[in-house]
Automatic annotation (TrEMBL):
One of the GO BP terms on file: lipoprotein localization to outer membrane
Protein name as annotated: ABC3 transporter permease protein domain-containing protein
GO CC annotations, alphabetized: plasma membrane protein complex
Predominant place of localization: membrane
Domain ABC3 transporter permease C-terminal: 282-407
First and last residue of the signal peptide: none
Bilayer topology annotation: Multi-pass membrane protein
Coiled-coil residues: none
Amino acid sequence: MSLSLFIARRIYRESDGGKQVSRPAVLIAMAGIAIGLAVMIIAVAVVIGFKSEVRNKVIGFGSHIQITNLDAVSSYETHPIVVGDSMMSALAGYPEISHVQRFSTKPGMIKTDDAFQGMVLKGVGPEFDPRFLQEYLVEGEIPVFSDSVSSNRVLISKSLATKMKLKLGDKIYTYYIQDDVRARRLTIAGIYQTNFSEYDNLFLLTDLSLVNRLNGWQPEQVTGGELQLKDYDKLEDTTYEIAIDTDNRKDEYGGTYYVRSIEQLNPQIFAWLDLLDLNVWVILFLMIGVAGFTMISGLLIIIIERTNMIGILKALGATNFTIRKTFLWFAVFLIGKGMLWGNVIGLAFCILQSRFGIFKLDPETYYVDTVPVSFNIILFLLINIGTLLAAVLMLIGPSYLITKINPANSMRYE
C-alpha cells in the first residue's frame, strides 16, 4: 500500500470518528454527493420511464410503421390501398418486422339521448395483435375481430364511455356521413383505459369487414397496413428500406403506397419527448456542479485543518505530489460513501414508485396517471462512473493549495 493511500485511510477513519477533522465539513461533502447522485438517478429513471410509456402507447395504437395511400396525406377523406395476403407475406419477410396487420378507418359520430361525440371507427382483422389493449382493458373482453363478417361489437375507451354515460353491454348508435347518412347499432364488448387522451377520446375498435362495408370498398382494400418491429432502434433504417421497395407503387385500383414511421406520423409528440433529454442534461450538469462545489468546500476546510500535518510530512521529505495524492484519495473515500447513500436513496425511490405509484400525475396533461420510472443498469453505472470522475477532476485544482504551505510556518500552525 502506497504512503499516500495509507495516510488517506487514516484521515478517513479519524473523520469517521470525529477526531481532528471537521465533522460538518465531511458531512456536507458527502451529503452534496449523495443528494446530487440521487437526483441524477431519479431524473434519468423518470425521463426514461416517461418516454418509454408515452412512446409505447403511441406505438400501441399505430404500430412502428404504417403503409397508407399517398392521397390520404393531403386529404381529410379516407383513401384505400390493396393489402392482400401476398403483400402481407412480403412485408413479414423483412428481418426486423415482427408482425403485420391491416386496418381501416371511418369517421363518424356517437349519439345518445343526452349527448353526441365525434369519433373514428377503426376496423381490424383476425391478425390483430391484442396484447397492447389487453394490458389496459378494465372491463369486458377483446372480441375476435373478422374481415369477412361483422359482430357489431366494439371496444371503447373509459373516458369516452364516461363522457357519453355508457357502460359495458350498452348498445350505441353511430352515424356516418357520405352521400347520405348511414347508421349502425353497436354493442360495447369491452372498455379500455390508456390515459392517452388523443386516442382514447377518438377511436372505437371493431371488425374490419364492418368498416370496409361502410366505406364501400372491395374486400382486399383497407386504409393501410401496420408493421411492428423487433427493435425500435432499427425504426429509421427499416422504414427507409421498406419505403425504397414500396413507395409510389400503385395497386390494381390506382392507389399509391406511402410508407411512414410512427415518428413521422406524430412529429409533435416525439419532438416533445426529445426535449426531455435536454432537461436531463441540464439536471446532470447542475447536480454534478453542486456535488463538486460541496466537495471542494469540504476538501479546502480539511486541508486547512491538517496544515500542521502537511508541514510535518514536507519536513520528513514528502513531496507536494504525494501529499496532494493523499488528500485526493481521502476525497475518493468521501465521494464513495456519499455515492453509496445516493444510490440507496435513488434506487429506493425508483422501487417504491414503480411498485406503489406514490407520486401521481394528471393523465389529461401527461398521458400517464403516476410518475413512471425505468431502471437502466448501463445508464446507472455510467452516472456513477461519471460522478466519481467529475468530482475527482474538480478537486485537482483546489489540491494545489498544498503546494503553498510552508513547512516552517505550518508546524507552528494552530
